[in-house]
Amino acid sequence: MHVPSRRPLVAVYGSSTVREGDRAYADALALGRALGAAGADVVTGGYGGVMEAASRGAHEAGAHVVGVTVELFERRGPVNPWVRERVHTPDLFERLRHITSRADGFVVAHGSVGTLTELFLTWNLLVADGRPQAPLVAFGAAWPALLRAARQPELVPDELFRYVREAATPEEAARLALGAAAPGS
């Protein structure tokens, strides 16, 4: 019996505070569209900002959009309207655990401390699970300087940088996230 393969699932992390009209929103919208157009589905935290923009772009490109929400943020506002599958988690750790176990690739877009946490925790989980083939893409102008600062033997050894790629455009981020993102890899 033939079992159809599923589409790659790419996680997009980013700020909840950017708004339509902001450059970061436009970039995340283009990223979602590029991922959807390339045949990927998208998983985000399910709320506003970068998460909304990536969800919207992916939905408009025909992708399935998963939102992994968390009890802590329920008062901040509703799930964005482009989420078609909602997974509700009790805390931030379970949210990130769910996303990292389910996604085939990851894009870290414009964000702040929460997004920084998602970058480093996802990176650590990929290392711990031995998943260098699961692309982790740092997308945007802020990430290269931060990654250069972290590239110190006593902080992050050079060999662990094989887990992270950098992208300057939404299209490059999508391409890199899908470069090795085979479902279940």
Automatic annotation (TrEMBL):
GO terms for cellular component: cytosol. It comes from the Bacteria. This is LOG family protein. It comes from Eiseniibacteriota bacterium.
